[in-house]
Design brief:
This protein is mostly helical. It is built from two helices and no strands. The chain is 88% helix and 0% strand.
């Protein structure tokens, strides 16, 4: 009976050692998963920045595109009115 008890205690001790080893591995894997999540978060931020940059470039291109003729005439009319006002002439509406 004593031999059975000792064998059983040794088996329990071996299982406890395995459990400790698995807990250590789990801690290492959790740490690695955290680092992976951080790196993935940085990647997502960079990916979002690239999309925002391309949208910004598209907006710049849209704003720098030639103005439609109607807008160009309105701008020319406004410039003429400013010159007339500077000369002291009444503005023409």
């Amino acid at each position: 009976m004593t031999r059975d008890v000792l064998a059983h205690l040794r088996a329990i001790s071996a299982q406890q050692s395995k459990i400790r080893g698995l807990r250590n591995k789990l801690a290492i894997l959790r740490e690695a998963a955290g680092r992976h999540a951080d790196a993935l978060g940085e990647f997502r931020a960079v990916r979002a920045a690239a999309a925002a940059y391309s949208q910004c470039l598209a907006e710049c291109m849209r704003r720098c595109a030639p103005a439609p003729p109607r807008a160009a005439r309105a701008l020319l009319w406004a410039a003429v009115q400013v010159l007339r006002f500077a000369e002291g002439s009444p503005a023409v509406l």
